[in-house]
């Protein structure tokens, strides 16, 4: 299964995270398929950046975000866009029948 999750970067006691697409069997800091953005919790306020188009594309392909990644993606409106795309496809299929 493909997951969207955080991988830890940075030095000791100074964590910095990348939001990545990775096979769920890989280790936390192992090789990843694609990088979608980053999250820096130590800044005030926390700094986040996400490539929304690629995140939506991966979720539509079946990638499952972890709880933390889902929270970050929701702040950028990714989950809302995915929901809208899925409901539009369902409505389109219902109208064709």
What labels describe this entry?
Small ribosomal subunit protein bS16, 39% helix, alpha+beta, elongated, 97 residues, S16 Ribosomal Protein, Chain: A, five-stranded mixed sheet, Ribosomal_bS16_dom_sf, structural constituent of ribosome
Q: Could you give the topology of this structure?
A:
Blueprint: E1 2-9, E2 16-23, E3 34-40, E4 47-50, H1 52-61, E5 64-65, H2 67-75, H3 78-96
Parallel strand pairs: 1-5
Antiparallel strand pairs: 1-2, 2-3, 3-4
Provide the CATH superfamily. Ribosomal protein S16
The neighbouring-strand order within the major sheet is 4-3-2-1-5
Task: Supply Rg.
Answer: 15 Å
Helical region count? 3
The whole-number mean of residue pLDDT values reads 89
Principal-axis shape = elongated
CATH architectural category: 2-Layer Sandwich
Q: What ranges have pLDDT less than 50 throughout 5 or more consecutive residues?
A: none
Give an account of the 3D structure.
The protein has one domain (1-92): 2-Layer Sandwich (S16 Ribosomal Protein, Chain: A). A five-stranded mixed beta sheet has the order 4-3-2-1-5. It has helices at 52-61, 67-75, 78-96, and strands spanning 2-9, 16-23, 34-40, 47-50, 64-65. The longest helix is centred in the C-terminal third of the chain and has 19 residues, at 78-96. With 97 residues, the chain is α+β, with helices and mostly antiparallel strands. It starts with a strand and ends with a helix. The model has no long low-confidence stretch (mean pLDDT 89). It is 39% helix and 30% strand. The radius of gyration is 15 Å and the shape is elongated. It contains three helices and five strands.
